[in-house]
């Protein structure tokens, strides 16, 4: 059972107000299900909306931010648990270690990089935790298509592609996370 979830998402709000509403609903669901949020420690955009919503609904939030971003004043001040780390690679590793599962809400290049690292670590056997994408209004459909092309071309094994959850509701996320089985570690011939 998932007790903590690392959430990757945009430090910007996006152009559609529905993105922030999604982040707020997601944060409330985390708090309502007593699932702690692990996230990048920021106060802005989707990140801030998720964290503030969890806190507003009585949930627990663990922020992990780089020194550089902290020095720029991007951290959320109301966090009781904010870890400041020297570099982004340490931040990503710490977030993964603190969480029982990982999910990407809509976001940009940083979100894509973080969740892609989580999938690739699954493929080499360094991550046995579930990884999912919240496919809000088909946001991640192009990525799903690209992963399918990688599989057809022989660059990604079916088990790894199928181990990535593309989910559309919070209940679907819980079901995916609670029933997840990591694929066998890749072997090379």
Automatic annotation (TrEMBL):
* InterPro entries, A to Z: LOG, LOG_fam
Q: Which GO terms describe its biological process?
A: cytokinin biosynthetic process
Cellular component aspect of the GO annotation: cytosol
Q: Does the keyword Glycoprotein belong to this entry?
A: no
- One Pfam family from the UniProt entry? Lysine_decarbox
Keywords, sorted A to Z? Cytokinin biosynthesis, Hydrolase
What Gene Ontology molecular-function terms does this entry list? hydrolase activity, hydrolyzing N-glycosyl compounds
- The EC number on file is 3.2.2.n1
UniProt record similarity statement: Belongs to the LOG family.
Give the protein name, as stated in the record: Cytokinin riboside 5'-monophosphate phosphoribohydrolase
Provenance organism = Limosilactobacillus gastricus DSM 16045
Query: What are the leading ranks of the lineage?
Result: Bacteria, Bacillati, Bacillota, Bacilli, Lactobacillales
